[in-house]
């Protein structure tokens, strides 16, 4: 990994996400808030200088209807049960992602320490959340002085819960979209 301060640092949690994002040379943090925060702190300590931005990308779950598996959610706010961690980002990738053929939504990302289903998904939607993941808030806490942009590609939705037979098809669709995200990130630099 280079330490060019003008280049954004791309990171993700899972090996399968890193594989899909490989064109962007992502750093892998591991799954869950504790692992992600610990890994991101170590990554930032090891760099010669801070990155211009941190793009945390990967898979997530929509908590609202109208978003389909394979759609992208750009976080306008990142929060968890402790509160708001980050507000939007000065950098936007929406135009580039749409130009790559992706369907993009913007909304609040809630970070949970577990997989969210059913009634809990409904409660998060009622609280204003659009999408849920298990790492982004922790990554934001680990990088308080770096602008963070969170990109989540949806695998499951209220209409298509994670444990249904269609999960495999939706997972493949989401990974294809995440690969397109990686292609965009490989050439993107914050202004």
UniProtKB/TrEMBL annotation:
Domain Nucleoside phosphorylase residues, every copy: 27-157
Molecular function in Gene Ontology: adenosylhomocysteine nucleosidase activity; methylthioadenosine nucleosidase activity
UniProt-listed GO biological process terms: L-methionine salvage from S-adenosylmethionine; nucleoside metabolic process
Name the UniProt record assigns to this protein: Nucleoside phosphorylase
Domain of life per record: Bacteria
Pfam families: PNP_UDP_1
Assigned GO CC terms: cytosol
């Amino acid at each position: 990994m280079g330490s060019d301060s003008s280049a954004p640092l791309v990171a993700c949690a899972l090996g399968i996400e890193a594989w899909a994002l490989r064109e962007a040379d992502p750093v892998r943090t591991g799954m869950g808030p504790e692992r992600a925060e610990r890994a991101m702190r170590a990554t930032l300590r090891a760099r010669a200088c801070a990155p211009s931005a941190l793009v945390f990308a990967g898979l997530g779950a929509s908590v609202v209807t109208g978003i389909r598996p394979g759609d992208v959610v750009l976080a306008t706010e990142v929060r968890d049960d402790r509160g708001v961690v980050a507000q939007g980002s000065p950098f936007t990738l929406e135009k580039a992602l749409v130009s790559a053929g992706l369907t993009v939504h913007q909304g609040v990302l809630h970070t949970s320490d577990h997989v969210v289903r059913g009634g809990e998904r409904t409660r998060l939607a009622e609280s204003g959340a659009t999408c849920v993941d298990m790492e982004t808030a922790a990554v934001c806490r680990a990088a308080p002085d770096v602008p963070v942009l969170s990109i989540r590609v949806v695998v499951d939705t209220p209409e298509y819960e994670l444990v249904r037979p269609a999960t495999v098809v939706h997972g493949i669709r989401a990974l294809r979209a995440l690969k397109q995200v990686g292609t965009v990130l490989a050439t993107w630099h914050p202004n």
